[in-house]
Every structure is written in structure tokens, then in C-alpha cells.
Design goal:
By secondary structure, the chain is mostly helical. 71% of the residues lie in helices and 7% in strands. The chain has helices at 4-25, 33-45, 50-57, 61-73, 95-119, 122-140; strands at residues 77-81, 89-93. β1 (77-81) and β2 (89-93) form a beta hairpin. The longest helix is centred in the last third of the chain and has 25 residues, at 95-119.
Length: 141
């Protein structure tokens, strides 16, 4: 077995390559990856303020504000006054946004299913399934 630091470095490398491959399978169209990422957060969370989204993305609220403005102008978001602070807005995805995100995910899932079926034996597919459980625990740590 490899030493743990080498395993960690290999894992980081493989996850990065897989992430890039998944991005290739469902190009963002007219949206940037930062915009797609913000929509993904809103899709999972249901709603958020610009500040909350900026914290999740590790960017300044002003930068996220520019992203949200583009998405709102594209007709992908619903903006309501924040009940806790009327000066702020809370954004949530509309149906067009949901369809976009779900279509994007379906394309990537289809690629994964086909690739796993074509590149892995049934035994390897089982091992991969078991590894996903371990990776989920790592991601939630």
C-alpha cells in the first residue's frame, strides 16, 4: 500500500481530472462556471442572499452580486425581500433554472453511466460503488 501522503495527492489529482471531465460533458452554454456554481447552490439550498452565496464560493459579495445580476437578467432567478432585513434580497431558482440544472446533471450522469459500463467489469463497478461511500464520508468530514 502507498503511504498516506501519496494516496492523498493521487486522490486530489484524480478528483480534479474527473471534475474537468464532467465539466466537458455538459458545457455551460452562455453561462460561466461561476454562474453555474451559484445556480447549483441555489438549487440545493432553495434560496440564499448574495452574501451567503459569496461565502459558499469564497468570494467577495460584490463579485457574487455581479454574478447574481447576470443570472437575474437571464430570467433564472426570483428575487424577494429578505423578511429579516428588507434592505437585502433573497434569491431562489425559478423553473427555467431548475430545468437547466437538471438537464446539465442528466448529461453528466449519462456520461458517467456509459463510461462506467464500458470501462469497468461488474466486479470493478461494485468496488467503485463501495468507494463512493468512502468518498462521501471523506467529503462530509
Amino acid at each position: 500500500m502507498k503511504n498516506l501522503p501519496a494516496t492523498a495527492a493521487d486522490l486530489r489529482d484524480v478528483i480534479g481530472r474527473l471534475r474537468r471531465r464532467l465539466r466537458e460533458q455538459a458545457p455551460p452554454g452562455d453561462l460561466t462556471w461561476s454562474q453555474i456554481s451559484a445556480l447549483g447552490h441555489l438549487y440545493r439550498m432553495g434560496q440564499a442572499t448574495v452574501t451567503e452565496l459569496a461565502l459558499l464560493e469564497g468570494m467577495r459579495p460584490q463579485s457574487m452580486g455581479a454574478i447574481i445580476t447576470v443570472l437575474e437578467n437571464a430570467g433564472l432567478l426570483v428575487a424577494l425581500s429578505d423578511p429579516a432585513d428588507g434592505r437585502k434580497k433573497v434569491y431562489s431558482p425559478n423553473e427555467d433554472c431548475r430545468r437547466l440544472i437538471e438537464g446539465n446533471r442528466a448529461q453528466r450522469d449519462d456520461w458517467l453511466v456509459k463510461t462506467i459500463q464500458n470501462k469497468f467489469s461488474p466486479e470493478e463497478q461494485q468496488r467503485l460503488s463501495e468507494a463512493v461511500e468512502l468518498l462521501a464520508r471523506l467529503a462530509d468530514a
